[in-house]
Write a structure and sequence with these properties.
single chain, mainly alpha, 70% helix
Length: 147
């Protein structure tokens, strides 16, 4: 089963998707874990998501860990399918719990109370592609799979 998680081909399109998703998610993970890029850091995120959104602390912890370490795993291409699945689950929950009621579009002009879910749909599409294709070329998964 482990070998099937690593299985990938020398596909550079999967590599591009994996790297870009990893880089984008690293920004979000850095905000939540370390307080980088104007984020609240670990304590602030734990408190904010637990109290303001009513998300159980254990699940907030999983979000922080998945966004931070999952983004690093995506960047290097290690267990890319698992990392992508974690990000995908976070995006689905974000749409259902936070962004879905704001409509489709991002809040470009500050005319709505929050952000829509168009970004999340794009991330979910990338996640599906990575679940199908794997980490692609130039990945730890490719090196470990021995193909």
């Amino acid at each position: 089963m482990f070998k099937s998680l690593l299985k990938t081909d020398n596909d550079y399109s999967a590599t591009v998707l994996r790297l870009l998703l990893g880089i984008v998610m690293f920004g979000h993970g850095g905000q939540k874990m370390l307080g980088w890029f104007g984020g609240g850091g670990f304590q602030g995120t734990m408190q904010g998501m637990s109290e303001a959104l009513g998300i159980p602390a254990f699940l907030v912890f999983l979000v922080i860990v998945t966004e931070f370490f999952g983004s690093i795993a995506l960047i290097i291409g290690f267990l890319g399918r698992i990392a992508a699945l974690g990000v995908g689950v976070i995006m689905v929950v974000a749409v259902l719990k936070i962004h879905g009621h704001n409509g489709f579009f991002m809040n470009w002009y500050g005319a709505q109370p929050g952000e829509g879910f168009e970004y999340h749909l794009l991330v979910i599409a990338i996640v599906v592609a990575l679940l199908i294709k794997g980490s692609g070329a130039l990945s730890v998964d490719k090196a470990l799979s021995g193909e």
